[in-house]
Design a protein that fits this description.
Strand order of the largest sheet: 2-4-5-8-6
Order of helices and strands: HHEHEEEEHEEHEH
Largest sheet: 5 strands, mixed, barrel
CATH architecture of the domain at 77-195: Beta Barrel
Strand content: 15-25%
Number of strands: 8
Radius of gyration: 38 Å
Distance between the termini: 32 Å
CATH class of the domain at 77-195: Mainly Beta
Length: 274
């Protein structure tokens, strides 16, 4: 007699189709759950950014003092400043990497109740404005502005005869202006006062508020947890399939028990007498 044919590996794995389907469903559920929690995390981040952008601005003197370093929590903070612009000839142009091909017009704004000034970006225009247009006049009298704070940039070149620099670098501008300067600058968040800027100038759009990555951290942790579960499901599927295939191979590969009919005919029986 001959033993039954040993099934192929592919057939053994095919017999485990229900287990494969269950593993696929579990993996899909874990991946979907992870992306759902990741979407919730991004939604929390966007909501926090919108709340920060919509927050009512506070007076600059209440949140940041003259001579104090620029703190991380001040970036993209909306504040109000009251005072007056410096003379028109104290304005300067910024043209470099930070302006992304445009030219910015920056003016010192002397803040009431202090002996210092905040550099304010009044607007941006085509690079030809630097040479083809006269420098815009500054609004006269006392003004109240809303600005979005930004940190001082590095690598700004000294002002030349054309009063042009490559970045708003506060330390290098201290010797160019007769004021103490806040260690940052503001993007004008209100329309140009009195229509002082020439036609073609537009406000510089402030960047999206910087939101800490820890906002919605619980949702991010849940997303990672779902994906770890998915990886665990794949590992368990592989081990279960491998163990069952190995067991099936062992069963079909075992030798059948020896029976009397299988003995050769010429072998003498032990119980026969000589």
């Amino acid at each position: 007699m001959t033993s039954a044919a040993r099934p192929s590996t592919a057939r053994l794995w095919l017999r485990l189709t229900p287990l494969h389907l269950f593993a696929l469903v579990a993996l899909a559920a874990c991946v979907a759950g992870g992306f759902w929690q990741l979407g919730a995390y991004e939604s929390r981040q966007g909501e926090a950014a919108r709340e920060s952008a919509a927050a009512a601005p506070a007076p600059i003197v209440d949140v940041w003092g003259l001579g104090q370093p620029f703190r991380t929590d001040l970036q993209d903070r909306r504040v109000t400043v009251e005072g007056r612009f410096g003379p028109v000839d104290e304005q300067f142009w910024v043209r470099g990497e930070m302006t992304r091909g445009d030219v910015w017009l920056v003016a010192p704004f002397v803040v009431d109740g202090s002996d210092g000034a905040l550099l304010v970006v009044r607007g941006r225009a085509d690079p030809s404005a630097e040479r083809d247009a006269a420098i815009p006049a500054v609004p006269e009298g006392r003004q109240q502005l809303s600005v979005v704070l930004q940190p001082s940039q590095g690598g700004g070149s000294p002002l030349g005869r054309e009063r042009t620099t490559t970045a708003i670098t506060t330390p290098s501008l201290l010797n160019e202006l007769p004021y103490r300067l806040w260690s940052g600058y503001g993007l004008l968040d209100t329309p140009a006062p009195d229509g002082a800027l020439a036609q073609g100038w537009t406000p510089v759009e402030p960047p999206d508020p910087d939101v800490s990555w820890t906002v919605g951290l619980k949702n991010l942790a849940y997303a990672l947890q779902w994906w770890v579960f998915g990886l665990f499901a794949v590992v368990m599927w592989w081990r279960m399939c491998r163990d069952q295939v190995d067991e099936a191979r062992a069963r079909h590969g075992a030798a059948p028990p020896e029976r009397p009919a299988d003995r050769p005919y010429d072998q003498p029986a032990d119980n026969l007498s000589p």
